[in-house]
Structure of DUF4974 domain-containing protein:
Amino acid sequence: MEDEIYGTIAKVVAGETLSDEERQDLKVWREEHEREYQLLVRLEEPVRFIRERGGIVREVAYKRVARRLERGKQRKIRWYTYISAVAGVLLVIGIALTWWGLPFGEKGTMEQPFRPGNGQVMLTLKHGEVVPLKRDVKEVIVADTTLRVTNEGNTLVYSVMQGEVREDIYNVLTVPVGGEFRVILSDGTMVFLNSGSELRYPEAFRDGQREVFLKGEAWFEVAKDSVRPFRVHAGEMDVRVLGTSFNVKAYERMESIAMTLVTGSVEITCNDESFRIVPGEQFEYRKGLKLTSVREVDTELYTSWKDGYYKFRQASLEEIMTTLSVWYGLEVFYQNEEAKRLEFTGKVKRYEDVGNLLRKFEQTENVVFNRKGNNVIIQLK
Protein backbone atom coordinates (compact mmCIF):
# COMPACT_ATOMS: atom_id res chain seq x y z
CA MET A 1 0.00 0.00 0.00
CA GLU A 2 2.85 2.39 0.85
CA ASP A 3 4.51 1.83 -2.53
CA GLU A 4 1.16 2.46 -4.27
CA ILE A 5 0.46 5.70 -2.45
CA TYR A 6 4.04 6.86 -3.11
CA GLY A 7 3.45 6.21 -6.79
CA THR A 8 0.25 8.23 -6.65
CA ILE A 9 2.06 11.12 -4.95
CA ALA A 10 4.76 10.98 -7.64
CA LYS A 11 2.01 11.42 -10.25
CA VAL A 12 0.66 14.44 -8.36
CA VAL A 13 4.15 15.97 -8.27
CA ALA A 14 4.55 15.33 -12.01
CA GLY A 15 1.19 16.97 -12.73
CA GLU A 16 -0.37 13.82 -14.17
CA THR A 17 -4.09 13.08 -14.00
CA LEU A 18 -5.13 10.60 -11.33
CA SER A 19 -7.63 7.82 -11.95
CA ASP A 20 -10.82 7.65 -9.90
CA GLU A 21 -9.31 4.78 -7.90
CA GLU A 22 -6.13 6.72 -7.20
CA ARG A 23 -8.09 9.78 -6.09
CA GLN A 24 -10.11 7.60 -3.73
CA ASP A 25 -6.92 6.00 -2.33
CA LEU A 26 -5.46 9.45 -1.74
CA LYS A 27 -8.66 10.56 -0.01
CA VAL A 28 -8.63 7.51 2.28
CA TRP A 29 -4.96 8.02 3.05
CA ARG A 30 -5.62 11.67 3.93
CA GLU A 31 -8.25 10.71 6.52
CA GLU A 32 -5.58 8.76 8.41
CA HIS A 33 -2.63 11.10 7.79
CA GLU A 34 -3.92 14.69 8.02
CA ARG A 35 -0.61 16.08 9.30
CA GLU A 36 1.35 14.46 6.49
CA TYR A 37 -1.27 15.63 3.97
CA GLN A 38 -0.69 19.23 5.04
CA LEU A 39 3.03 18.76 4.31
CA LEU A 40 2.09 17.61 0.82
CA VAL A 41 -0.13 20.66 0.37
CA ARG A 42 2.86 22.91 1.12
CA LEU A 43 4.60 21.50 -1.95
CA GLU A 44 1.80 22.56 -4.33
CA GLU A 45 3.09 26.07 -5.01
CA PRO A 46 6.73 25.15 -5.80
CA VAL A 47 5.50 22.21 -7.85
CA ARG A 48 3.22 24.49 -9.89
CA PHE A 49 6.07 26.96 -10.38
CA ILE A 50 8.38 24.22 -11.65
CA ARG A 51 5.74 22.78 -13.99
CA GLU A 52 5.37 26.20 -15.64
CA ARG A 53 9.13 26.30 -16.25
CA GLY A 54 9.74 22.95 -17.82
CA GLY A 55 7.80 20.36 -15.89
CA ILE A 56 8.65 17.21 -13.96
CA VAL A 57 8.75 13.68 -15.34
CA ARG A 58 7.22 11.22 -12.87
CA GLU A 59 9.73 8.46 -13.59
CA VAL A 60 12.62 10.87 -13.02
CA ALA A 61 11.08 12.14 -9.80
CA TYR A 62 10.44 8.62 -8.53
CA LYS A 63 13.98 7.44 -9.37
CA ARG A 64 15.51 10.45 -7.64
CA VAL A 65 13.45 9.74 -4.55
CA ALA A 66 14.39 6.06 -4.65
CA ARG A 67 18.11 6.88 -4.91
CA ARG A 68 17.96 9.31 -2.00
CA LEU A 69 16.21 6.69 0.12
CA GLU A 70 18.56 3.91 -0.95
CA ARG A 71 21.51 5.92 0.30
CA GLY A 72 20.01 5.70 3.75
CA LYS A 73 19.44 1.96 3.28
CA GLN A 74 15.89 2.26 4.52
CA ARG A 75 13.21 0.01 3.11
CA LYS A 76 10.45 1.50 5.27
CA ILE A 77 10.34 5.23 5.96
CA ARG A 78 8.11 7.71 7.68
CA TRP A 79 5.99 9.97 5.48
CA TYR A 80 7.79 13.17 6.50
CA THR A 81 11.04 11.62 5.27
CA TYR A 82 9.41 10.95 1.94
CA ILE A 83 8.17 14.51 1.74
CA SER A 84 11.68 15.78 2.42
CA ALA A 85 12.98 13.55 -0.35
CA VAL A 86 10.36 14.86 -2.80
CA ALA A 87 11.24 18.43 -1.84
CA GLY A 88 14.87 17.59 -2.53
CA VAL A 89 13.95 16.18 -5.92
CA LEU A 90 12.33 19.47 -6.90
CA LEU A 91 15.73 21.10 -6.47
CA VAL A 92 17.87 18.23 -7.84
CA ILE A 93 15.91 18.21 -11.10
CA GLY A 94 17.70 21.42 -11.91
CA ILE A 95 15.02 24.11 -11.85
CA ALA A 96 16.41 27.41 -10.60
CA LEU A 97 14.08 29.33 -8.29
CA THR A 98 14.96 32.68 -9.81
CA TRP A 99 12.75 34.82 -7.57
CA TRP A 100 15.40 34.74 -4.83
CA GLY A 101 17.65 36.68 -7.17
CA LEU A 102 15.26 39.55 -7.81
CA PRO A 103 16.76 43.02 -7.26
CA PHE A 104 15.38 44.61 -4.12
CA GLY A 105 16.44 47.59 -2.10
CA GLU A 106 17.73 47.73 1.45
CA LYS A 107 16.04 45.70 4.16
CA GLY A 108 12.73 47.10 5.24
CA THR A 109 12.41 49.29 2.14
CA MET A 110 8.88 50.45 1.32
CA GLU A 111 8.09 52.37 -1.85
CA GLN A 112 5.46 54.99 -2.62
CA PRO A 113 2.10 54.66 -0.82
CA PHE A 114 -0.47 52.46 -2.48
CA ARG A 115 -4.10 52.46 -1.41
CA PRO A 116 -6.49 50.00 -3.07
CA GLY A 117 -10.22 50.36 -3.51
CA ASN A 118 -10.10 52.23 -6.81
CA GLY A 119 -9.22 50.87 -10.25
CA GLN A 120 -11.39 51.12 -13.34
CA VAL A 121 -14.39 48.77 -13.23
CA MET A 122 -15.70 47.81 -16.68
CA LEU A 123 -19.13 46.60 -17.83
CA THR A 124 -19.37 44.68 -21.11
CA LEU A 125 -22.86 44.82 -22.64
CA LYS A 126 -24.59 42.33 -24.95
CA HIS A 127 -23.10 43.59 -28.24
CA GLY A 128 -19.57 43.88 -26.87
CA GLU A 129 -19.79 47.55 -25.95
CA VAL A 130 -17.51 48.26 -22.97
CA VAL A 131 -18.65 50.90 -20.49
CA PRO A 132 -16.26 52.27 -17.80
CA LEU A 133 -18.19 52.64 -14.54
CA LYS A 134 -17.58 55.76 -12.49
CA ARG A 135 -17.29 55.65 -8.74
CA ASP A 136 -19.65 57.67 -6.55
CA VAL A 137 -21.61 58.84 -9.59
CA LYS A 138 -25.23 58.11 -10.45
CA GLU A 139 -25.78 57.42 -14.15
CA VAL A 140 -28.09 55.53 -16.50
CA ILE A 141 -26.30 52.84 -18.51
CA VAL A 142 -29.25 51.25 -20.36
CA ALA A 143 -32.86 52.45 -20.61
CA ASP A 144 -35.35 50.90 -23.00
CA THR A 145 -38.83 49.36 -22.91
CA THR A 146 -37.69 46.06 -21.35
CA LEU A 147 -34.62 46.84 -19.23
CA ARG A 148 -33.10 49.60 -17.15
CA VAL A 149 -29.50 49.49 -15.87
CA THR A 150 -28.20 52.22 -13.59
CA ASN A 151 -24.99 52.90 -11.72
CA GLU A 152 -26.05 54.02 -8.26
CA GLY A 153 -22.53 54.94 -7.12
CA ASN A 154 -20.44 51.74 -6.77
CA THR A 155 -23.54 49.56 -7.28
CA LEU A 156 -24.91 48.46 -10.63
CA VAL A 157 -28.70 47.94 -10.54
CA TYR A 158 -30.72 45.89 -13.08
CA SER A 159 -34.48 46.36 -13.35
CA VAL A 160 -36.75 44.45 -15.75
CA MET A 161 -39.42 46.81 -17.03
CA GLN A 162 -41.90 44.49 -18.74
CA GLY A 163 -42.32 41.55 -21.08
CA GLU A 164 -41.28 37.89 -21.01
CA VAL A 165 -37.58 37.02 -21.07
CA ARG A 166 -37.10 34.65 -24.01
CA GLU A 167 -33.30 34.31 -24.14
CA ASP A 168 -30.25 34.79 -21.95
CA ILE A 169 -28.42 37.99 -22.89
CA TYR A 170 -25.23 38.13 -20.88
CA ASN A 171 -23.32 41.07 -19.46
CA VAL A 172 -19.87 40.87 -17.87
CA LEU A 173 -18.75 42.95 -14.88
CA THR A 174 -14.96 43.10 -14.56
CA VAL A 175 -13.27 44.40 -11.40
CA PRO A 176 -9.50 45.10 -11.58
CA VAL A 177 -6.90 44.31 -8.93
CA GLY A 178 -7.36 46.81 -6.11
CA GLY A 179 -11.00 47.43 -7.02
CA GLU A 180 -14.43 46.28 -5.83
CA PHE A 181 -18.02 46.73 -7.01
CA ARG A 182 -21.57 45.60 -6.26
CA VAL A 183 -24.28 44.53 -8.65
CA ILE A 184 -27.95 43.95 -7.91
CA LEU A 185 -29.24 41.46 -10.45
CA SER A 186 -32.69 41.54 -12.01
CA ASP A 187 -34.09 39.12 -9.38
CA GLY A 188 -32.86 41.26 -6.48
CA THR A 189 -29.77 39.16 -5.68
CA MET A 190 -26.83 41.28 -4.51
CA VAL A 191 -23.30 40.30 -5.54
CA PHE A 192 -20.25 42.09 -4.11
CA LEU A 193 -17.20 41.46 -6.32
CA ASN A 194 -13.75 41.49 -4.75
CA SER A 195 -10.45 42.57 -6.33
CA GLY A 196 -9.44 40.95 -9.62
CA SER A 197 -12.82 39.29 -10.21
CA GLU A 198 -15.29 38.86 -13.04
CA LEU A 199 -19.00 38.00 -13.07
CA ARG A 200 -20.92 36.91 -16.17
CA TYR A 201 -24.70 37.04 -15.78
CA PRO A 202 -27.94 37.54 -17.77
CA GLU A 203 -29.49 40.99 -18.01
CA ALA A 204 -32.70 39.28 -16.90
CA PHE A 205 -33.34 35.72 -15.70
CA ARG A 206 -35.66 33.47 -17.65
CA ASP A 207 -38.42 31.44 -16.01
CA GLY A 208 -37.10 28.33 -14.31
CA GLN A 209 -33.45 29.27 -13.93
CA ARG A 210 -31.00 31.75 -12.42
CA GLU A 211 -27.39 31.14 -13.42
CA VAL A 212 -24.15 33.16 -13.16
CA PHE A 213 -20.45 32.48 -13.78
CA LEU A 214 -17.70 33.71 -11.45
CA LYS A 215 -13.94 34.11 -11.72
CA GLY A 216 -12.31 35.42 -8.55
CA GLU A 217 -14.15 36.14 -5.30
CA ALA A 218 -17.62 37.42 -4.49
CA TRP A 219 -20.11 37.67 -1.64
CA PHE A 220 -23.65 36.62 -2.57
CA GLU A 221 -26.94 37.56 -0.93
CA VAL A 222 -29.39 35.52 -3.00
CA ALA A 223 -33.02 36.61 -3.28
CA LYS A 224 -35.38 33.80 -2.27
CA ASP A 225 -37.25 32.08 -5.08
CA SER A 226 -38.61 28.59 -4.42
CA VAL A 227 -39.32 28.04 -8.10
CA ARG A 228 -35.99 29.14 -9.58
CA PRO A 229 -32.82 27.85 -7.87
CA PHE A 230 -29.79 30.14 -8.09
CA ARG A 231 -26.60 28.58 -9.48
CA VAL A 232 -23.03 29.85 -9.33
CA HIS A 233 -20.45 28.25 -11.62
CA ALA A 234 -16.93 28.87 -10.30
CA GLY A 235 -14.13 26.81 -11.80
CA GLU A 236 -14.69 23.13 -11.01
CA MET A 237 -17.38 23.99 -8.43
CA ASP A 238 -21.11 24.48 -8.99
CA VAL A 239 -23.17 25.98 -6.15
CA ARG A 240 -26.97 25.61 -6.04
CA VAL A 241 -29.15 27.60 -3.62
CA LEU A 242 -32.71 28.89 -3.22
CA GLY A 243 -32.04 31.90 -1.01
CA THR A 244 -29.00 32.36 1.18
CA SER A 245 -25.77 34.31 1.84
CA PHE A 246 -22.33 32.90 1.16
CA ASN A 247 -18.83 33.66 -0.10
CA VAL A 248 -17.18 32.04 -3.12
CA LYS A 249 -13.43 32.26 -3.69
CA ALA A 250 -12.32 30.86 -7.04
CA TYR A 251 -9.28 32.69 -8.41
CA GLU A 252 -7.83 30.83 -11.38
CA ARG A 253 -4.22 31.30 -10.24
CA MET A 254 -4.85 29.88 -6.76
CA GLU A 255 -4.47 26.20 -5.94
CA SER A 256 -7.89 25.87 -4.29
CA ILE A 257 -11.47 27.09 -4.57
CA ALA A 258 -13.79 27.48 -1.59
CA MET A 259 -17.37 28.29 -0.60
CA THR A 260 -18.16 29.56 2.90
CA LEU A 261 -21.82 29.48 3.97
CA VAL A 262 -23.24 32.02 6.44
CA THR A 263 -27.01 31.50 6.16
CA GLY A 264 -29.36 29.13 4.37
CA SER A 265 -28.54 25.82 2.72
CA VAL A 266 -26.31 25.04 -0.24
CA GLU A 267 -25.75 22.04 -2.49
CA ILE A 268 -22.35 21.82 -4.18
CA THR A 269 -21.30 19.65 -7.09
CA CYS A 270 -17.57 19.27 -7.63
CA ASN A 271 -15.38 16.61 -9.20
CA ASP A 272 -18.42 14.35 -9.78
CA GLU A 273 -19.39 14.48 -6.08
CA SER A 274 -22.28 16.26 -4.33
CA PHE A 275 -22.18 17.92 -0.91
CA ARG A 276 -24.82 19.52 1.30
CA ILE A 277 -23.39 22.45 3.28
CA VAL A 278 -24.95 24.05 6.36
CA PRO A 279 -24.24 27.48 7.93
CA GLY A 280 -20.82 27.74 9.54
CA GLU A 281 -19.22 25.26 7.15
CA GLN A 282 -16.71 25.72 4.35
CA PHE A 283 -16.30 23.55 1.28
CA GLU A 284 -12.83 23.45 -0.31
CA TYR A 285 -11.48 21.80 -3.46
CA ARG A 286 -7.71 21.54 -4.00
CA LYS A 287 -7.13 21.55 -7.76
CA GLY A 288 -3.71 19.93 -7.87
CA LEU A 289 -4.61 17.04 -5.59
CA LYS A 290 -8.22 16.87 -6.81
CA LEU A 291 -9.40 16.50 -3.21
CA THR A 292 -12.53 17.90 -1.57
CA SER A 293 -13.24 18.66 2.08
CA VAL A 294 -15.93 20.17 4.30
CA ARG A 295 -15.14 21.68 7.71
CA GLU A 296 -16.57 23.99 10.34
CA VAL A 297 -15.06 27.49 10.30
CA ASP A 298 -15.39 30.95 11.79
CA THR A 299 -17.12 32.49 8.76
CA GLU A 300 -15.93 36.00 9.67
CA LEU A 301 -12.38 34.96 8.78
CA TYR A 302 -13.48 34.39 5.18
CA THR A 303 -16.13 37.09 4.70
CA SER A 304 -14.82 40.12 6.63
CA TRP A 305 -13.31 41.61 3.45
CA LYS A 306 -16.80 42.75 2.39
CA ASP A 307 -17.09 44.80 5.58
CA GLY A 308 -13.83 46.69 5.06
CA TYR A 309 -11.34 44.66 7.08
CA TYR A 310 -9.50 41.34 7.24
CA LYS A 311 -9.66 39.15 10.33
CA PHE A 312 -6.98 36.54 11.02
CA ARG A 313 -6.75 33.98 13.81
CA GLN A 314 -3.48 32.09 14.20
CA ALA A 315 -3.06 32.40 10.43
CA SER A 316 0.31 31.72 8.86
CA LEU A 317 2.09 34.61 7.16
CA GLU A 318 1.82 32.68 3.91
CA GLU A 319 -1.99 32.54 4.19
CA ILE A 320 -2.18 36.23 5.08
CA MET A 321 0.06 37.36 2.22
CA THR A 322 -1.93 35.23 -0.25
CA THR A 323 -5.06 37.12 0.81
CA LEU A 324 -3.38 40.54 0.72
CA SER A 325 -1.71 39.88 -2.64
CA VAL A 326 -5.14 39.58 -4.28
CA TRP A 327 -6.24 42.97 -2.93
CA TYR A 328 -2.99 44.90 -3.34
CA GLY A 329 -1.79 43.17 -6.52
CA LEU A 330 1.43 41.90 -4.94
CA GLU A 331 3.88 39.21 -6.01
CA VAL A 332 5.24 37.69 -2.79
CA PHE A 333 8.50 35.74 -2.38
CA TYR A 334 10.18 34.26 0.69
CA GLN A 335 13.90 34.05 1.45
CA ASN A 336 13.21 31.83 4.46
CA GLU A 337 10.72 28.95 4.54
CA GLU A 338 10.38 29.57 8.29
CA ALA A 339 8.91 33.02 7.57
CA LYS A 340 5.90 31.41 5.88
CA ARG A 341 4.95 29.69 9.12
CA LEU A 342 4.94 32.76 11.37
CA GLU A 343 1.45 33.14 12.86
CA PHE A 344 -0.61 36.29 13.39
CA THR A 345 -3.94 37.02 15.05
CA GLY A 346 -5.82 40.28 14.65
CA LYS A 347 -7.67 42.61 12.29
CA VAL A 348 -6.30 44.93 9.59
CA LYS A 349 -8.10 47.66 7.69
CA ARG A 350 -8.79 46.77 4.08
CA TYR A 351 -8.14 50.25 2.69
CA GLU A 352 -4.86 50.95 4.47
CA ASP A 353 -1.70 51.80 2.52
CA VAL A 354 0.20 48.57 1.95
CA GLY A 355 3.49 50.05 3.22
CA ASN A 356 1.96 51.02 6.56
CA LEU A 357 0.32 47.61 6.82
CA LEU A 358 3.56 45.69 6.26
CA ARG A 359 5.37 47.86 8.80
CA LYS A 360 2.81 46.82 11.42
CA PHE A 361 3.65 43.19 10.75
CA GLU A 362 7.33 44.01 11.17
CA GLN A 363 6.63 45.54 14.58
CA THR A 364 4.89 42.41 15.89
CA GLU A 365 7.20 39.68 14.59
CA ASN A 366 10.84 39.04 13.72
CA VAL A 367 10.29 39.59 10.00
CA VAL A 368 11.30 42.13 7.34
CA PHE A 369 9.44 43.12 4.16
CA ASN A 370 11.28 44.59 1.16
CA ARG A 371 9.04 46.06 -1.53
CA LYS A 372 9.91 47.19 -5.03
CA GLY A 373 6.90 47.97 -7.19
CA ASN A 374 4.41 45.16 -6.68
CA ASN A 375 7.14 42.67 -5.65
CA VAL A 376 7.58 41.91 -1.96
CA ILE A 377 10.37 39.74 -0.61
CA ILE A 378 10.04 38.50 2.98
CA GLN A 379 12.83 37.35 5.26
CA LEU A 380 13.49 36.78 8.93
CA LYS A 381 15.53 39.40 10.78
The two ends are 44 Å apart (CA to CA).
